[in-house]
Write a structure and sequence with these properties.
Length: about 300
């Protein structure tokens, strides 16, 4: 397992699947139950105090949609409907929107994301599968890597903006007079800079979006609350054992739920919504997260 952010840990869903099969433990997950669990999501409601807030805030957090390989527009529609039903003040998207060939049209996904409703806006960050879909790297099924991947990323950023989604790459926005939303580039394929993402926050409450929780031990200072995805909670969890593999250099440390980063920064790692590598989950249901945040 590499310690370099530019070299992702050698963890793939294929390895997870082979390991489970080799141990004879994947019978339930490989059946219809595993597919059904992947398609059945819930709304997880969490509460936390956020220093700097002057009034309560409702934030919906959706991550790891993985539109393309196993996820269609219909599933995304259900997730968007669930988020809108919670009447959030702000919607936050944790990356890995895309899991497509490099020449795929994202229009059906964008049409669904354009339906998100939040008075303070919709903000997101790119994840590692987004970079694969741009052509930065290319597993065989995606088609060849593209020399123009950066231009495709720029085009996608504009397309998402047209759909109402502001993508943050080591930058932030004042979503409200007492709230700063910052977002960092992908930990594996970008050059994430949390300090730059939070520059300009001043005395405002801060929310920091990072697709990958592996950035948490490297935060240069305290953030009010960090929100991450990427791990899927392991996607396949087993009784008594938990997740056989987590795509993180820190193993189980940031698998899911409430964790703590550097400088005592509280962070929430979502199990995400889509699937990657294999189209099933086990004991690890997808989630739309609703965070009810109050002044500290």
């Amino acid at each position: 397992m590499s310690d370099s952010p530019s070299s992702p840990p050698n963890v793939t869903r294929r390895r997870v699947l082979r390991g489970l099969l080799g141990g004879g433990l994947a019978v339930g997950a490989l059946g219809g139950a595993g597919v059904a669990q992947a398609a059945t999501f819930g709304v997880v409601r969490e509460r936390a105090a956020l220093p700097g807030l002057r009034s309560p805030l409702r934030a919906a957090f959706l991550t790891d949609l993985h539109y393309g390989l196993y996820v269609g527009a219909g599933q995304v529609r259900g997730w968007v409907d669930a988020a809108n039903a919670e009447r959030p003040d702000v919607v936050l998207l944790g990356g890995d929107f895309l899991d497509t060939r490099t020449d795929a049209d994202p229009a059906p996904l964008l049409a669904e994301l354009a339906r998100l409703r939040a008075p303070l806006g919709v903000y997101g960050v790119w994840g590692n599968h987004d970079y694969g879909s741009f052509g930065r790297y290319a597993p065989r099924w995606r088609g060849p890597a593209r020399r123009d991947w950066f231009q495709r990323q720029q085009d996608m950023t504009r397309a998402f903006a047209a759909a109402g989604v502001t993508l943050l790459r080591d930058e932030g926005r004042a979503a409200r007079s007492d709230l700063w939303v910052g977002g960092v580039d992908d930990f594996w394929f970008g050059q994430p800079d949390p300090a730059q993402a939070l520059a300009g926050a001043g005395a405002r409450a801060t929310l920091l979006l990072s697709h990958n929780p592996d950035i948490l031990p490297e935060l240069p200072g305290r953030a009010g609350l960090a929100l991450c995805g990427h791990t899927h909670g392991g996607q396949v969890r087993l009784p008594l054992i938990g997740a056989p593999m987590i795509p993180s250099r820190y193993g189980q440390r940031y698998a899911m739920g409430w964790v703590t980063g550097a400088h005592a920064t509280p962070a929430y790692v979502s199990r995400g919504l889509g699937t990657s590598g294999v189209p099933f989950r086990n004991l690890c249901p997808p989630e739309v997260t609703l965070l009810s945040l109050t002044p500290a």
